[in-house]
């Protein structure tokens, strides 16, 4: 019972699928009419019964006994149909080969008469071809013919030894071709050979026959061996025109009941030559304009035929589609338009006098509130009077260069609004000690290297961190006015919030590259172990330097090892180098973090490792762009999402974990005399600050 039930279910599903599948394809034939004969689709006005076709001229007979079943024009039994085009009002047919032989056992028709009824061979699209030694092919037009008939097209191919005849060109020896510049409908063609009546037995034995056939221009390429194995069964496509009606569009439209463009989304075009017209679906629609429901909207978005850039939203509507940019981006979203660029808010930073508050917020810049210390200053955790937790970065007063870094960071961050970039809430530059106020992000990623005492980052989380970081960097590199290069990409600068969302931080070293320059020459900055080797030598700054550093971060996520560690044996000190040699020797799994080996499948690890390897190419130009990297990682993440459940981490657990290990966004710890800053805290006369409300 169970088996039968599931069988039935399967059948139902198949039927449902079939309905769904056929529903998306607009019908090409009249309702209840067979749509295909063999491999050939027969669209109305053609049809395989009288009711299914416009009239008997468009009637098709399907010869089921042939393999594959082959359609023929009903009234003209010799003419098989290869293809019918609604778009061009043409059909490809094949006509028999006429053969004239001087050896009795080789028979064949040497004269073939054709009547295409209302159809015509398309002028200038077909050729007459003749094969043979001293053979001729002749075409006679029978339309309006009276009295003595003369050929209207002729071609002659004369004898030459096969060896001296040009191999591939059909130019008069053994083969002859000529264009057909007439619209033939009723005609015959004839083949004859040995037209000079030479008594040359050897030659006649070698070339006993002459052949004549019609073929679509470009559909046949001559080869000398064909002369010896051409048979009357060979088929060559010929293009013919068809049209409906006997009047122009203008006249035809006057009589709605006989007007044949039945679809509401279709238009009429006069046939280029001769009487009648064609119907066409409006642009953005597709199907059969001769049927009332025939033209249906093309869903460009689903079919991926749209021109919306990656990262924009494509929306389909009848006949048209539109592209729109994601929140935070602007532009027309089109590939050949402006695309989507990060939106630049003129300035999110509003200056508010607030002074005392920051001092209070950090408990007068108390040591217990220090989150981290670095080359550029100290970061404090602060709790504002509205209970909002912020991070406050205080410059080291001693170094005037630091002020420049601060201004740099402030200008950059005030232009950026991205969920994976740490948010600048306010700043203060007019004080002696510049301050920057950020959203507070508890940093958990550093514990990747500290697995003994910390949360094990799952493979899924690592992949997410990688993807989000790549996304943020791709965003920075595509900034509207000019690309922003971070210059100090490292795990320590990737913060994680409670939801394990990655946030790229520390833009002190970053640079904006004006659009008219592709690279800048600047002082080498960055962190050992992450530094682009090319940049190290050239001091040329490009986006590809960030790509390299990101590659190192990827390797860290894969291996759980630090980028640079003097505790490791010399050959393994530099992780990027170690990784590269492991990859080359096919020993990737030896260095992958054992914690994730069980979780991730090897294919994914390989994919990510390959991306990392690509990012770590010595030559910047060989590295992918951050956009490419982000897209590849997103692809892998999508697969990952379906494979693993979301991690279930309550905020309480995260909190406890965070308390256990102090967080820092700074990797270099240097001796900052915090007290001197403390004592000078009342120099904070005015503080620039704003609370732009969340995201
Ligand atoms: C029929 O002709 C069209 C247009 O000339 C061509 O694109 C198509 O390939 C042809 N089909 C066959 C079966 O020769
Ligand atoms: C025709 O006859 C000739 C000689 O009688 C023979 O060599 C040739 O094979 C025959 N051809 C065919 C197609 O039967
Ligand atoms: C045949 O005659 C008809 C009527 O006179 C004319 O419209 C048509 O163009 C002629 N066809 C040819 C091929 O001359
Ligand atoms: C053709 O040539 C052969 C000898 O090569 C000869 O026997 C024969 O009579 C000739 N036939 C004609 C019709 O001239
Ligand atoms: C003749 O034979 C050659 C070699 O087998 C083949 O490539 C060619 O297509 C044949 N020609 C025809 C017209 O069948
Ligand atoms: C069928 O219709 C076409 C155009 O609508 C016309 O040219 C042709 O003569 C018609 N054929 C018959 C048999 O009525
Ligand atoms: C319109 O077309 C129908 C069907 O072909 C025909 O019966 C009718 O006479 C035509 N009307 C006019 C005004 O030509
Ligand atoms: C086509 O347009 C006519 C008149 O506007 C309308 O009555 C008919 O329902 C439409 N048909 C379809 C298939 O949309
Ligand atoms: C996409 O743009 C190209 C060039 O601008 C155009 O030819 C093509 O039709 C467009 N495709 C769509 C689906 O709009
Ligand atoms: C966009 O424009 C460029 C040149 O202007 C052209 O080469 C490219 O094919 C176009 N792309 C699309 C999708 O239209
Ligand atoms: C974390 O995710 C929850 C649920 O999606 C959301 O409500 C909360 O605002 C997020 N917290 C942060 C800090 O983004
Ligand atoms: C997460 O864990 C809590 C407590 O263990 C449980 O109640 C909850 O259903 C879990 N949520 C998910 C999505 O698994």
UniProtKB/TrEMBL annotation:
Membrane topology: Single-pass type I membrane protein
Compartments it resides in: Membrane
Domain of life: Eukaryota
Domain EGF-like, first and last residues per copy: 297-335
CC terms in the record's Gene Ontology section: plasma membrane
Pfam families (alphabetical): EGF_CA, GUB_WAK_bind, PK_Tyr_Ser-Thr
Catalysed reactions, as listed in the record: L-threonyl-[protein] + ATP = O-phospho-L-threonyl-[protein] + ADP + H(+); L-seryl-[protein] + ATP = O-phospho-L-seryl-[protein] + ADP + H(+)
Keywords of the record: ATP-binding, Disulfide bond, EGF-like domain, Glycoprotein, Kinase, Membrane, Nucleotide-binding, Phosphoprotein, Receptor, Repeat, Serine/threonine-protein kinase, Signal, Transferase, Transmembrane, Transmembrane helix
Signal peptide interval: 1-24
An MF annotation (GO) of this entry: protein serine/threonine kinase activity
Biological processes, Gene Ontology terms: cell surface receptor signaling pathway
Main location as per UniProt: membrane
InterPro entries for this protein: EGF, EGF-like_Ca-bd_dom, EGF-type_Asp/Asn_hydroxyl_site, EGF_Ca-bd_CS, Kinase-like_dom_sf, NOTCH1_EGF-like, Prot_kinase_dom, Ser-Thr/Tyr_kinase_cat_dom
Ranges where the Protein kinase domain occurs: 365-645
Free-text function comment from the UniProt entry: Serine/threonine-protein kinase that may function as a signaling receptor of extracellular matrix component. Binding to pectin may have significance in the control of cell expansion, morphogenesis and development.
Protein name: Wall-associated receptor kinase 2
Organism: Glycine soja (Wild soybean)
